[in-house]
């Protein structure tokens, strides 16, 4: 029926039999075309040919908790293109504000209007941007008690229920190849969601999950966080002596554990003060070469970098256009969005109290189980990010490949975007790969959109990254 019914195509243009008309009517009864969620036009947007939808999916049985989504169909051939779920991290930050409107969505706010993103990922796929968990962005729980102590397991289950019910609402996407991608703390969200989907599929096979792509992800707390010291040192951000105390006296994983555990010691405080003094508050840790910032892009990473001194962080952004745009009443009406329990839409939640020590739970072992179950995995790193540096991610992927007994099928080499080196890559077996994006920050699609799109396209197609000029 997928070829018969499209929410972008007037039914009058489709020639069908009487039996097919009955089937179409049944699909309409199920809400397949979601007239209520269709976006007629976003304020200030340029003309586009693809469909856009936004709205809520309830994820509990009492009608108290609902997750907000923004969905853009592929620019061309949406009926044949795969379905992709995009998740930002934090935990507690918005995939709408960061992913959709700052990174790889079809538009970016500019003053009172939206400008077209020429490297939008909906050139290659139908993309869902999900604000999760409840309490993030427009997503909500009418019972505020829910916000106390949300953890990874709760988030994974809500995300799976969302996908299950979203597919009921959009049945034309049932059975479609499904991929999940995201960055930062999505290194926790995505593997745990994929794991419960694989388990669910053993009884009710409704998710055609093919692969996951994890950008600058938190996969194993100690390795990821402690690789920061070497990155700082090798990029000239700290001295030799500070590097020694940052690796021996108090490393970064110990500092974060003490900080979030409410037991910060004077020793770790002194070490971090020294590191902070040398790295400078005027250098963006999420892109060590960047001179400007967009706070909506950086907010999801602040949680990974706790600061022990008030007023330490300098925001050089005079105006955040994404925040301004998503707080406009006309925009909220066009998105079918509402603010419940909060006065303003924010990049990262002010009401959610996430169990931040979930950071210490490794997800790299879940990634291994996904590879063994036939799910393709790509781990990619913007190479200018010092928050979750490429060196830690590369080490984790190499160790995982060794533990799984996977042979290198593509040796470590450069890949190209156009006539420039786009980054480096290595592939293990046919299900696990690692890649860097040259010149990219923690939020790679924001800082290197064209190279990120090349990477995304190759991932969806299951092909090696380009090894020659194009």
Overall description:
Among the domains are: 33 residues, no CATH class; 104 residues, Rossmann fold, CATH 3.40.50. Helix 3 packs across helix 4, helix 6 runs antiparallel to helix 8 and helix 12 crosses helix 13. It starts with 17 loop residues before the first helix and ends in a 9-residue tail after the last helix. The strands form three sheets. Strands 1, 2, 3, 6, 7, 9, 10, 12, 13, 14 and 15 form an eleven-stranded mixed beta sheet that branches. Strands 4-5 form a two-stranded antiparallel ribbon. The protein has a two-stranded parallel sheet with strand order 8-11. Helix content is 35%, strand content 18%. The protein is α/β, with parallel strands linked by helices and 470 residues long. The chain has 15 helices and 15 strands. It is found in: Secreted. Belongs to the peptidase S10 family.
